[in-house]
Amino acid sequence: MADFKTPELKEYPVVPNLQEGVMAHSKPFVAKPQFQEPLGYPGELVDNWKEVAIAKMGELTSKYRSLQVFLDACVKCGACTDKCHYYLGTTDPKNMPVARQDLYRKVYRRYYTFAGKYFPKLVGAEDLTEEVLDDWYSYFHQCSQCRRCSVYCPYGIDTAEISMAAREVMDEIGKGQKYCNEIIAKVNVIGNNLGLPEPALVDTLEGLEEEVFDDTEVKVRFPVDEAGAEILLVTPSADFFAEPHVDGLIGYAKVFHEAGVTWTLSSFASEAANFGMFIGSYENMRKLALRIRQAALDLGVKRIVFGECGHAWRVAYSFLNTLAGPFDFLDPKYPVPQHICEFTYDLIQKGKLNFDKSQNDHMVLTYHDSCNVARASRMGSMPGGQFVIPREIIKATCDNFYDMPDYSIREGTFCCGGGGGLLTDDLIELRVKGALPRMEAIKQVVEEHGVTHMAAICAICKSQFSKVLPYYGFTMDQIVSVHQLVSNAIVLTPDQQQAEEPEPAETAA
Ligand code: SF4
Ligand code: SF4
User: Fold this and answer.
1) Is the CB of 107 under 6 A from ligand 1?
2) Would you tell me how many other CB atoms lie within 10 Å of the CB of residue 388?
């Protein structure tokens, strides 16, 4: 394990004493030129970086009015200060949301406000210096863009948008982050975050088909690039091999099997994740989203369904139509796009899925609301559907379910600690410390209700928890996919015909 002290789990959340600068050393690796340039950024820090950065800041505030409002509106009320998991876990005051915002705000004020230009000291305006840039690189990569702070801000100031803007400015001057930019470059060339080429994908899916047949003696299909299928499934590439993600993919396939619909994955758009959002780049986000449109057109599908991935669902639910629409070539009877949880929940409500809940009796479950699903999207047609639907699926498939404390779930959910493009080993200290509030909430339900497992519907959350749970005395297999629970409990129909046209979903988003 890395060389740092894992925070101690307290009985209840405690606002820690400030320890100035304790996380100043935390910085992700900088992207190399071969991953910067294909994304449209300079390979390395440009000579006139200060001028370029200031000009970019002006461009961003004029393009995104929300950003300017967020920079102008803060009244320093302090309501957000103890709401960030990275502050609670690290104790560094620059991880308080308002302090993080101020790293950007003070430079914005200096160059873009009257008072900041002429009376900088009076309004806390500061020049952009190497020291400031250093702080930006460190602390804007200690924000998982989870938006928890915005829920408690009386003005709804969204620190995530300020972090995205800061990262975009840094990319523009040639100081991008290795993890995110490498991944985006890989998707542009190969189609997924893992760099998994088509033959390997086909091989993996064939292996899964055999595995499920060996387990169940039912031929559940895992099709790829099948033109004319009704549904295109777009899912995080972690679903293709990693535990517990792959068990979720098996669950989706079994649900499609029982629904009697034809479906396919695409080797061209074999990734739901869209890291363009994490670096604040509309252009990169759009380029990735257009691959999904292209795949849907090429395969002639009627519907698009997204697998379990938090930020992918935010991009899909909130932005896909504007990024890559119109989707007027799809069947208008169905939501565009649809979440796999909406798809499964709809079938449950119609009584079309049979479950043997006892298959999950070895587990006592709780559920982690992923930030981007909870605070930046919705599911179904009911308010709060993004909280209700996954829980209803868990309750339909398991007998033992207990929610974590109220302050840590639904819109107040705590980030897993690895979101927003921070799921990289060079940030492991931050990831472990940032997971503290979630770990404290888990501890509570473990002690009160004997909870043994936590389910989630986000690939990043699942990977992050697999890694950090052991730091807190839990085991990595205590995190499971929601559709893994579905997979365990679903009663399969042996010779299900995949031809029947199902009723349109009632859970239109
Ligand atoms: S968006 Fe999340 S990670 Fe970023 S400052 Fe707010 S609470 Fe912290
Ligand atoms: S809660 Fe909002 S207004 Fe208050 S300090 Fe935080 S960002 Fe500023």
Assistant:
1) no
2) 15
CB-count exposure of residue 289 (10 Å: 0-12, 13-18, 19+): buried
CB 29 within 8 A of CB 130: no
Give the pLDDT score at 494.
Answer: 86
What b/e string do you get for 95-110 counting C-beta neighbours within 10 Å, with b at 16 or more? bbbbbbbbbbbbbbbb
| pLDDT above 50 (res 509) | no
Query: Which residue, chain included where needed, has tokens 């969204």?
Result: 158
Measured between its terminal Cα atoms, the distance across the chain in Å is 43
Q: What is the mean pLDDT of the chain?
A: 95
Q: 147: Cβ below 6 Å to ligand 1? A: yes
Residue 87 CA, closest ligand 1 atom number: 8
Banded model confidence at residue 1, pLDDT cuts 50, 70, 90:
very low
Tell which atom from ligand 2 comes closest to the C-alpha of 70: 7
171: left (phi over 0), alpha (psi -120 to 50) or beta: alpha
Q: Check pocket membership of 86 for ligand 1, CB cut-off 6 A.
A: yes
Mean pLDDT over residues 283-296, rounded?
A: 97
435 within ligand 1 shell (Cβ under 6 A) = no
Q: pLDDT band for position 3 (50/70/90)?
A: confident
Residue 490: phi, psi to the nearest 5? -65, 140
